[in-house]
Fold this sequence. Notes:
Layout: H1 3-14, H2 19-42
Keywords: Membrane, Transmembrane, Transmembrane helix
Transmembrane segments: 21-42
Amino acid sequence: MNIHWLLRLAHWARHPPSPRHMAMIAGVIIACLLLVGIEYFWGWPDALRVTPGGRGALLR
Length: 60
């Protein structure tokens, strides 16, 4: 771990963020976990894949 991150964590421990900021951070983490769960259980749609495949793929 870099000393910069340790100093940032020490500052965060001494001056904790506001409850509103913590709610925003928790919301972002929950949204990310929700997207990972959806991708894990239902998979990623073929239309949103980066590599061509499935119906409507461009042939070269």
